[in-house]
Amino acid sequence: MAAPKKGRSASAQSKPGRSLALILIAIVALTGGMFLSGHTTPRLGIDLAGGTSITLEAKADQGSAINKANMDTAVEIMNRRVNGLGVSEAEVQTQGDSNIIVNIPKGTNSKEAREQVGTTAKLYFRPVLASEASGTAASASPSPSASGSSTASPSASASASASASASASADEKASSSASPSASATSQGRAVTDALKADSTPSASASASASASASPSASASASDTDTAALEAEYTDLDCSKASARAAAGEGAKPADSTVGCGQIQGVWYKYLLGPAAVDGTEVDKAQAVYDTQTAAGWQVTMDFNSAGSKKFADITAELAQNSAPQNEFGIVLDGEVVSSPYVSSSITGGQAQISGSFTQDEAQNLANMLSYGALPLSFQEQSVTTVTAALGGDQLHAGLLAGAIGLALVVIYLVAYYRGLSLIAIASLLVSAALTYVLMSLLGPAIGFALNLPAVCGAIVAIGITADSFIVYFERVRDEIREGRSLRPAVERGWPRARRTILVSDFVSFLAAAVLFIVSVGKVQGFAFTLGLTTVLDVVVVFLFTKPLMTLIARRTFFASGHKWSGLDPKSLGAKPPLRRTRRPAGPAAGPAEPKEA
Asked: What is the DSSP letter of 592?
C-alpha cells in the first residue's frame, strides 16, 4: 500500500509547473481585463484624490422626530442615492445627534450628487392643473409619457393615443411660450377654473367642463386661499433661482400648490393639485433601455399595494383629460422633476415613464423615485472641498512608507536567507501585481476606492505575506537540521508549514471581516484591503511559492547546500545524514553488549 502512495507523491512533486502555469494565466488574464476595461489605475478615495464634504443638519418634519432610527434611515437613503450615481467610496455617516456628513470623492459629478443628497423634502405625485413656460421663451420637447408595463410592447392604439397626447401637450406649451403677454385676467380665470375643477368629487368630469364650471360648485379651499394661489401662480417666474426656491414652500400634501420644472433648459411653472401618491409608496424604480421598440431610455416604477391602487385611480382620472391636465407632476423639494402625461389607466402596480431621456437623465429620475422620501428635512450647513494636492501629498507619504517597509523586509530576507530570499522576493512581486490589478478592476466593478487607511492595510499585508514565506522556509531548514537532504526536506516541511500558514491567515481574514462589518467610513477600506491581501497570500503561497521551492530543490546550487544558498547544512548545525540500519533479527545476531551494573 505504501508504494502507490509514494508513486503519487513523486508524480505530484515532479509537476510543479502546472501550478506556476495556472497562476501565470490568472495574472495575464486579469492584466488583460484591466487594460481592456481602460481602468489601469485604482480609483482613489476623497482623502487621496480630493472631493467634496457636505454637512447636513436635521430638522424635525411634520410627524417625525430627530432620533436614531430616523437618522439611520436617512443615512441609508442618502447612501443609496449617491451610490445610484455610481459614486465610489462615498461616505454617508452621522455626526452627533442631528448632523450627517456626506463625503463625495473627486471624479464624480459632485454637483449632481450634492443636489440629490441635499434634496431632502418628500416626494409626491401631484396632478397638473395648469402649466406654461416661465421666463425665456423657447421651444420645448413633449412631456414624457407614463404607461403601464403589463405587456412588453405597447399596442398600436396605445401608441397612437400617446402620440396624440404628446402633441397636445407640446402644442399647448409652445403656444404658452409664444404668447407670454396674455392678459392677467384670462390667465387668472383659467387658474380659478382649474382649482374649482380639482376640488370637485370627480376630477376627470369637472376638468372636462372647467370652461363652463357652475358657480355653485363646492370648493375645498376658501376663496381667499384660491385667490392667493392664483396670484402666486400668475406672479411666479421660474427663471429666477430665488423664485424656484420659494415655490411651493410650506405646502402640505393635501394642499394645491405651485412648482417649477425644467424641460431641455426651459423653465416651466406648474399649478399642482393635492398629492395623489406618496413617494414612499414606490417600491423600486430603475432606468432601463428599451431594445424591443427602440424607445430609448425609460424609467420603470413598481408600487406597493397602497400606491398601486392610488396610482390606478389617479391615472384613470387623468387619462380622460386634455393636456396639460392629463399629466402628473413628480414633485421633489418643490421642484417638478418630471411631468409625464397619461393616455390610459395604469393598473397592476407597474408603470413606465418614457420620453427623450438620456441615460443620465433616466438614471437621475430613477434615483429620485427610489430614494426620494426621507423621514426628516435637512439643511445644508457647510460644503468643504478637499484639494487633490493635499490628497496627492498623503498618497505620496503612504507610498513612501510602503516602499520603506518593503525595502526593510527585502534587506532582512537577503541578509538572513541569502539565495532563498529570491523566492520570497519573487512571491512578494507576484502578490503585489495581483493586488494592484484586482484593486484596479474592483474600482469600476464594485465601487472600491483606495483611501489612506486602505494603503495602510496594504503596508500591513507586506508583513503578513512575508511571514508566510518565513514559516515555510524555517520548516524546510528544520528538516535539514534533522539530517535530511533538500528535496525531501521541502516536501516534509510543507504539510506542517501549510497548517500554520492557513491558521494564521484565517485569523487575519476573520479580524478583517469583523472589522469591515462593524466599522464605518474609511476604516472599512483598511479592513477590505487587509482581507483581500490575506486571501491573495494563500493563493500565492500555494500556487507560486511552494511549486517554485520544489523546482529550486532540484538545482545543484541549492541541493548541494552552497553557503550562499541559505540552506547550508553546516551553518544550520545539521545532524549527520540519516542512515537506515537493520535491526537484529534474533539471538543469532551476536551476544548482547554488557550492561553497566
From this structure: P
- The CB density around residue 357, as the number of other CB atoms within 10 Å, is 22
Q: What is the pLDDT of residue 173?
A: 39
Q: What is the mean pLDDT of residues 215-242?
A: 71
Same fold, 16-44+387-572 and 51-119+374-386: no
In terms of Cα–Cα distance, which of 336, 282, 273 is closest to 311? 282
CB 388 within 8 A of CB 106: yes
* DSSP state for residue 45 in the 8-state scheme: -
Q: For the segment 268-325, what is each residue's pLDDT rounded down to a tens digit?
A: 899 998 988 887 788 888 888 877 777 788 888 888 888 888 988 888 888 888 888 8
Average of per-residue pLDDT values in the chain: 74
Give strand pairing partners of 59. 377
Q: Do the beta carbons of residue 180 and residue 134 sit within 8 Å?
A: no
Rounded to whole angstroms, how far apart are CA atoms 373 and 434?
A: 42
Instruction: Look up the pTM and report it.
Output: 0.52
Helices (H) and strands (E) in the chain, counts: 20, 15
Judge whether 457 and 530 are in contact, CB under 8 Å: yes
Give the three cell numbers for residue 569. 547544512
What value, to the nearest 5°, has the Cα angle with vertex 298 and ends 252 and 331? 10
Phi-psi region of 253 (alpha: psi -120 to 50; beta: other; left: phi over 0): alpha
Report the sign of the C-alpha dihedral through residues 426, 432, 436, 442, in that order.
Answer: positive
For 310-375, the DSSP string reads HHHHHHHHHTTSPTTTTBEEEEETTEEEE--EESS---TTEEEEEEEE-HHHHHHHHHHHHH---S
CB 45 within 8 Å of CB 449: yes
Q: For strand 328-332 and strand 335-338, is the pairing parallel, antiparallel, or unpaired?
A: antiparallel
Chain centre distance of CA 167:
39
Residues 6+ apart with CB under 8 A from 176: 131, 132, 133
Provide the residue ranges of all domains of the chain, joining segments of one domain with +: 16-44+387-572, 51-119+374-386, 121-212+219-372
Cell numbers found for residue 97: 445627534
Mention every residue, 6+ apart, whose C-beta is less than 8 A from residue 252: 62
- Nearest residue to 349 via CA among 373, 296, 298, 313: 313
61: DSSP letter: P
pLDDT band, very low/low/confident/very high, at 412 (cuts 50, 70, 90): confident
CATH of domain 51-119+374-386: 3.30.70.3400
- Reading the block at residue 182, the C-alpha cell is 396674455
Q: Mean pLDDT over residues 566-590, rounded?
A: 63
| 16-44+387-572 has CATH 3.40.50.1370 classification | no
Phi first, then psi, for residue 319 (nearest 5°) are -65, -20
How far apart are alpha carbons 401 and 455 in whole angstroms?
10
Most confident of 5-14, 83-92, 442-451, 569-578: 442-451
Is residue 324 reached through a cis peptide bond, with omega within 30 degrees of 0 on the bond before it? yes
- Tell me if 339 sits within 8 A of 329, measured CB to CB: yes
DSSP state of 201: S
Please name which of 406, 390, 513 lies closest in space to residue 458, comparing C-alpha atoms.
406
Tell me the C-alpha distance between 19 and 22, whole Å: 5
- Mean per-residue pLDDT for 132-161? 44
